[in-house]
Amino acid sequence: MNFLIAQGTRPAVVGQMSNLIQEFRGNKLKDWEEWYLNKHPEAISIAANKIFEMVNHFKDVMTKIDREMVERWVKDLVIVKTFVGLKFQEAILRAVANHLEDSYRLAEPEEESIGIDGFIGNRCVSIKPITYEAKKALSEKIEVPIIFMKK
Fold first, then answer.
1. How far apart are CA 2 and CA 9, in angstroms?
2. What span, in angstroms and rounded, lies between the C-alpha atoms of 40 and 21?
3. How would you write the pLDDT of the chain (151 residues) with one tens digit per residue?
4. Widest CA span of the chain, in angstroms?
5. Nearest Cα to 127, choosing from 136, 138, 140, 116?
6. What does the alpha-carbon distance between residue 38 and residue 44 come to, in Å, rounded to a whole number?
C-alpha cells in the first residue's frame, strides 16, 4: 500500500528530512532518534494519524469495489484512454514535425519501455499531459525531451 498519498510524511508534518539530518551533529541511530523526537515531539503521532485515516478510508472504499466496476475501469483504460492517448500522440508528432518540416514516427515497443513516445526526425521525444508536471511523486525518470499536451 502506498502511504505517500496520505501525505503524512510530508515536510509540513515531519520536517524536511534532508535539512534535519544535516543539522543533526551525531552519527548514531539512537542519538538521531532522541534528537529528532526532541525537535519534533508530535510529528510521528501526527503522521501516523494521517496515514491511519487514509487506511481507514481505503478499507471503506475497498468494500464498494466489485468486479463490474473493475471491468468498467479496465475497458475505459484499454479502449478509450488507449485510443485517445495514442491518437493524440500521433497528431502531436505530426503537427510538430510539420512545423519543423521534418518526418515523424511512433516509437517501437522497446523504445516505449524507456519513455520514448516517438521521433521527430532523428530526435526522440516523450508526450505527456500537462498534468504530468504536477505529479512529482512519480518514480518514472524520462531522459528525453518532453512535449506537454493539453486536451
1. 12
2. 13
3. 555 567 888 999 999 999 999 999 999 999 999 999 999 999 999 999 999 999 999 899 999 999 999 999 999 999 988 888 889 899 999 999 999 999 999 999 999 888 899 999 999 999 988 887 666 545 567 778 888 877 7
4. 63
5. 116
6. 12
pTM comes to 0.52
* Sheet strands side by side (includes 118-120): 104-106, 118-120, 123-129, 146-149
- Residue that the C-alpha cell 486536451 belongs to: 151
- Spatial separation of the C-alpha atoms in residues 67 and 26, rounded to whole Å: 53
Which residues 6+ apart lie within 8 Å of 140 measured at CB?
A: 115
- Identify any residues that bridge with 13 across adjacent strands, giving them in sequence order: none
Backbone φ and ψ of 104, nearest 5°: -145, 160
Cell numbers for 111 = 523504445
Q: Are 148 and 133 in contact (CB under 8 A)?
A: yes
DSSP the chain: --GGGGTTTSHHHH--HHHHHHH----SHHHHHHHHHHHSTTHHHHHHHHHHHHHHHHHHHHTT--HHHHHHHHHIIIIIIHHHHHHHHHHHHHHHHHHTT--EEEPPHHHHTTT--EEETTEEEEEEEGGGGG-TT------S-EEEE--
